[in-house]
Amino acid sequence: MAVYKVKVATGDILKAGTNNSISITLVGSRGESQQTTIKHRFMPGKEKDLTVRCEQDLGPIVLIRLHKWRVFLEDAWLLNHVREGSAKKLVDDELEILRDHRRQELKARQEAFQWKSYAEGWPRCLRVDSVQELDSNVQFSCVRSTNFNGVAIFHAASQLLSGFLLRRSSWNSLDEMRSIFSRTRVPEYVAKHWREDDFFGYLFLNGNNPIVIQRCTTLPSKFPVTPEMVASSLGGGTNLGKEMQEGRIFIVDYEVLEDIPAGTIHGRQQYVAAPLCLLHQGADKLLRPIAIQLSQTPGPASPIFLPSDAEWDWLLAKTWVRNADVYSHQLITHLLRTHLLAEVYTVATLRHLPSCHPLFKLLFPHFRFTLHINTLARSTLINPGGTIDKGSGVTYEGLQLIVQRGLEKVTYTSLCLPDDIEHRGMAHLPNYHYRDDGMSLWEATKSFVSGIVAFYYGEDAAVSGDAELQAWVMEIFTNAFLGRTSSGIPSSLQTVAELIKFLTMMVFTCSTQHAAVNSGQYDLGAYLPNAPFSMRHPPPSEKGKAFLQHFLDTVPDVATTAQNLVALTLLSSRLSDVFTEAEPRRLIRAFQAQLKEIRDRIEERNYRAELRYNYMNPEETENSISI
């Protein structure tokens, strides 16, 4: 009989342990042990010495399998490391055994995690219809489910409230809109300042959708703003051409919304616009709108609205822009560019990288719970009759078309923050906290990823020769970006530098970028006029017709607002280390130290600010897209 000693250590964070049933299998160069159940309860921060007895000598141990299944309640066990005492450097025949087990693991994964097309022109997704069909290893933990379901119960109760509020369709006043949200600091600030042009401009830099603004060097012909129109907004002694040349004119174009079909809510027709907005950086460094056109087709029926227009004309025009920004943010910046892409990254990793692969170890903490939350979204949020279909102004077909058009415009440049900032001409605009915090976090992430890649690969030939890595990249190119070469997304990686950039993009997308476009949804959208999900009158075709009651009758009704507010609460809720080698663990500690420095800088800036920008604070950022 052979006896093997195994050490199993649990992570040292709160709730890292497990009460579930755990068993172990040892694979050696001459055989495999029977699956042995472990009787111990695994507590956080503790290491257990286990004994595995076998009828025969297994030879040098090349693989250890741990199995976990629910006894009563599912929980999330954070395994720190597992080691067998007789492990030694492997020779060729033992490596072949290990390779065979890797092939078996990937074959099983590819059978378990298969692709399907959710909608034409969308990234492909996991072939499941409900969270009950998910592999237990990618489902919410017990704690996560409890927290999430608590919010869901609140959601259901609020829908009953919405039914009661449905008795009255319009608001009586703007002040009444403040009574429906939790009176916390940022929503209160929004309710106080939403009319101001300074705040409107600020949202393009530090709001939920900070990636749509770009420097304007030449006005598009479809937006015929004349120097005379904006002269009073630019201040004396300057003109539009000069301000463009000096980099102080910016533009936002919602062309993606042109001719999107609008639906009905509670039997009433809704409307969608595709506006353009021109902005100017003033001498005081603040960004303000100076012209708005509410369609892509200029002409008498599509006037250009200006700050000098009547108060309600200008306010209504800005509100139409905010409505367009909601669609752009929710369906492209948030859903498509973080959730849907991260799902492809997750499934491709499961299908092509064995769990002992260094890139699997690097990436998988950034994929935790993503398949669960996305499956929930497809069954309750973006499905026909779901929250967005019922609560926004676009039809289900319109929703699908916006995402499809959005994917057509996604490029590798746009997904890599330094390249994106340069491409949009946004490197020098003051008060762009999204850029400043994001660049610090991008560089910190890149530094960490570079260390990991250098440790495991070292030279370009190791990258180009990694068959598992190359299959993984091709699968992402094919299923996330539908093989569109014009996107600039790589279909293979040949050098260490290329691998570092690709991994940095993925980690940044699944953590920092998602936090930036997700966490502020309730803060900035709770006060209805700042982020209306629908509009009940068509865009104005002439000036001088807007007034308070028309505005109240245009923005979403009371019941729709209540329902969408609950969704925002759920969406913006904020509810492990798998390397065992010394160098990766040192790199992790260095990365954590960098994140702490960035956190301290952000909190120091926020301490002096009336309106804090905290959405990219590492202290508040989850590793993965799990909400």
What does this structure look like?
The protein has 627 residues and is of the alpha+beta class. It contains 21 helices and 16 strands. It folds into two domains: 2-112, PLAT/LH2 domain (Lipoxygenase-1, Sandwich), CATH 2.60.60; 131-575 and 584-620, Up-down Bundle (Lipoxygenase-1, domain 5). 46% of the residues lie in helices and 12% in strands. The strands form five sheets. Strands 10-11-14-15-16 form a five-stranded antiparallel sheet, sandwiched between helices. Strands 2, 3, 4 and 6 form a four-stranded antiparallel sheet that branches. α7 runs antiparallel to α16 (467-480). The longest helix is centred in the middle third of the chain and has 42 residues, at 311-352. 43% of the residues are buried. Mean pLDDT is 88; it is low at 162-167.
Keywords:
12% strand, 627 residues, four-stranded antiparallel beta sheet, 21 helices, 2 domains, alpha+beta, Lipoxygenase-1, domain 5, Lipoxygenase-1
Number of helices: 21
CATH class category of the largest domain: Mainly Alpha
The overall average pLDDT, rounded, is 88
Low-confidence stretches: 162-167
Distance between the termini: 50 Å
Question: Topology, pairings included?
Answer:
Blueprint: E1 2-10, E2 21-28, E3 31-32, E4 36-38, E5 47-54, E6 61-69, E7 79-84, H1 92-112, E8 115-116, E9 125-126, H2 142-165, H3 185-193, H4 197-206, E10 214-215, H5 227-234, H6 240-245, E11 249-253, E12 264-265, E13 268-269, E14 276-281, E15 287-293, E16 304-305, H7 311-352, H8 358-363, H9 370-380, H10 387-391, H11 396-409, H12 412-415, H13 417-423, H14 433-456, H15 460-464, H16 467-480, H17 496-518, H18 521-525, H19 548-554, H20 558-571, H21 582-608
Antiparallel strand pairs: 1-5, 1-7, 2-3, 2-4, 2-6, 8-9, 10-11, 11-14, 12-13, 14-15, 15-16
